[in-house]
């Protein structure tokens, strides 16, 4: 199964007429906050291992998590082990590999039902594509894997076709998810939306209003999940289907919003734009 490629941005019905990014988004101590990482918390880099974590960001995240009573989770395509390397001793809940692996706010870890390891034949075939398409970076993660083509954008269409053929030949319950200069392979049974729903059934997230901030096609399931639960979806940057409540400019904007929330006992909304 291959998800459709991203469409041009459409303004959501709930915010008809909104053409510019929002400059103010309210922070509420009663929310449950879910954050994508690459492109949302961190600026996208030329390769996954080239991202830079601003030195003040982990402290801001810890203070915001405390302010929310622990109801903050990173929801990422990266593996939890990779998130731990980026954010050592962060101490918050995490969903890795698009929700395939989970860590609760108390530190309990496990895999989502249906999160099976990728067949070795699929892994080998995908890794072989880096020779056929120079500049493509293959990122194995365990339950999922990614093919990054930011260094060679022209490889995109041919790479997508090659990956789709590998999945079709495997007959495995996997799907191909297009993102920003990346294609992700993941089990059909997992998604960021399902991870958020799982967290929302548990303390400290339960009975709060879910808010998910993301930037890519892989975050659409999360946007849909929080919408079903009466929450807010916040898109970072351009693109996407328009199924969100707010749009903000950049990862730098998100970091500034978190900084204000971390350093204030009142709503970040009261501080205007950040």
Largest sheet: 8 strands, mixed
Order of helices and strands: EHEHEEEHEEHEEHEHEEH
Tell me the overall shape: globular
Q: Please state the structural category.
A: alpha/beta
CATH architecture of the largest domain: 3-Layer(aba) Sandwich
CATH superfamily heading of the largest domain: HAD superfamily/HAD-like
The total count of helices amounts to 7
Mean pLDDT: 87
Roughly how many Å is the radius of gyration?
18 Å
Q: What is the strand arrangement across the widest sheet?
A: 5-4-3-2-1-10-11-12
The tally of beta strands, per DSSP, is 12
Give the proportion of residues in helices.
25-40%
* Poorly predicted spans: 2-19, 266-274
By CATH reckoning, the class of the largest domain would read: Alpha Beta
> Distance between the terminal alpha carbons, to the nearest Å?
40 Å
Strand content is 15-25%
The CATH topology annotation of the largest domain reads as: Rossmann fold
The number of domains: 2
How would you describe the overall organization of this protein?
The protein has helices at 57-67, 80-86, 120-132, 156-170, 192-200, 220-228, 251-262; strands spanning 31-35, 72-75, 93-96, 101-103, 109-111, 137-140, 145-148, 174-179, 182-187, 209-214, 232-236, 246-248. The chain is α/β, with parallel strands linked by helices and 274 residues long. It folds into 2 domains: 13-114 and 190-271, Rossmann fold (3-Layer(aba) Sandwich); 120-187, 2-Layer Sandwich (Alpha-Beta Plaits). Strands 5-4-3-2-1-10-11-12 form an 8-stranded mixed β-sheet, with helices on both faces. Strands 6-7-9-8 form a 4-stranded antiparallel β-sheet, covered by helices on one side.
